[in-house]
Amino acid sequence: MRVVVTGAGGLLGKRIVQAFKDYEVVGVYHRSQPETSPFLVLDLSSLNLRPIEELSPDVIIHAAALTDVDKCEREPDLARLLNVDVTREIVKVSKRTNAFLVYISTDYVFDGTRGNYREEDETNPVNVYGLTKLEGEKLVRDVDSLVVRTSTPYGSNPASGKDNFALWLLKKLKAGERVNALVDQVTSPTLNTNFSLMLREAVDRRIKGVLHLAGRSQVSRYEFSLALARTFGLNETLINPAHFNEMKWFARRPMNSSLNVSKAMSLEHKPMSLQEALSELRREIEANDIVWK
Predict the structure, then answer these.
(1) Matching Gene3D superfamilies, A to Z (predicted)?
(2) CATH code at 166?
(3) What's the pLDDT score for residue 208?
(4) Given this model, what pLDDT does residue 288 score?
(5) CB 268: neighbour CB atoms within 10 A?
(6) Is residue 158 part of a domain?
(7) What is the pLDDT of residue 291?
(8) Fewest beta carbons within 10 Å, which of 65, 90, 150, 162?
(9) From CA 174, how far away is CA 290, in angstroms rounded?
(10) Domain count, the chain
(11) What is the mean pLDDT of residues 205-221?
(12) What pLDDT digit, counting tens, does each position of 169-198 carry?
């Protein structure tokens, strides 16, 4: 079986290609090279996806997206190009090749007024990022597909040369620097390794429709930060509680976009609790000597 992964060099993409390593997996990237061979260098914004079509994939996992929330708000045309127009072309390729399409989406399709969102709950994005990802969700419904929503992904690998929140926080605390973490924004932090194994199982089982694959714990950024510090034996007093109204973000954020993962609990690789995931993160980091250099 041939699996094509777009965004294969990203935070989720790098772990996804590892999860499918016993298949013929082709990672598609533009700037950040994936850990696959073979791979395909392709600028998806050109909307010329014939090179993907020529691979005759059995499965397409579309993980590429513009995920910078403020950049999406400032440059809505770019967000629409990368998150909607590219997805439309991916759908066309899926139709022509009869490939099973997996679309990676986000908890930001919800407005965050209550949290613990189920797959069937009404969507109502509050920013351009969430709106364009929701439009992508609607496009993929026209083909044999699975929409996977996740929340606050993190892991032991940087994404496109940038540290994710967990790595950034660990380095700050290791250096003895103070950091701010929100007490009033709640999500479902998701370890990318756990996510990729759940995704692999969902693809193998050809689950269709919408599925929430995220961490089992629903916590604030502040709670997440404290747990991370404790897991790595770092000084948690360096973490300052902060609030939404203190942030100078350009785009609005949902306050509680946490995801209900009851359906995913039927998988063999179940959503991890926060402590389970952080223990795994520490194991990965210590095994690869990533943070402490």
Answers:
(1) NAD(P)-binding Rossmann-like Domain (3.40.50.720), UDP-galactose 4-epimerase, domain 1 (3.90.25.10)
(2) 3.40.50.720
(3) 96
(4) 76
(5) 8
(6) yes
(7) 46
(8) 162
(9) 13
(10) 1
(11) 97
(12) 999 999 999 999 999 999 999 999 999 999
Q: Write a three-state SS string for the chain.
A: CEEEEECCCCHHHHHHHHHCCCCEEEEEECCCCCCCCCEEECCHHHCCCHHHHCCCCCEEEECCCCCCHHHHHHCHHHHHHHHHHHHHHHHHHHHHHCCEEEEEEEHHHCCCCCCCECCCCCCCCCCHHHHHHHHHHHHHCCCCEEEEEECCEECCCCECCECCHHHHHHHHHHCCCCEEEECCCEECCEEHHHHHHHHHHHHHCCCCEEEECCCCCCEEHHHHHHHHHHHCCCCHHHEEEECHHHCCCCCCCCCECCECCCHHHHCCCCCCCHHHHHHHHHHHHHHHCCCCC
Q: How much is the pLDDT for 290?
A: 53
Residue 293, in any domain of the structure: no
What is the average pLDDT across 144-168? 88
pLDDT (tens digit per residue) in 123-150: 999 999 999 999 999 999 989 999 999 9
What is d(CA 213, CA 193) in angstroms, rounded to the nearest whole number? 12
Task: Look up residue 70 and give its two tokens.
Answer: 């403020």
Q: What is the dihedral of CA 119, 125, 130, 136, to 10 degrees?
A: 60
Domain, as residue range, for 87 = 2-288
Token code pair at residue 227? 């747990």
For residue 292, pLDDT beyond 60: no
What is the distance between the alpha carbons of residues 93 and 77, in angstroms, rounded to a whole number? Answer: 23
Q: Does a structural domain hold residue 275?
A: yes
Q: Is the pTM above the cut of 0.90?
A: yes
**Which residue is catalytic, options 29, 117, 129, 154?**
129
Query: In Å, what is the CA distance from 227 to each residue of 222, 269, 285?
Result: 9, 22, 16
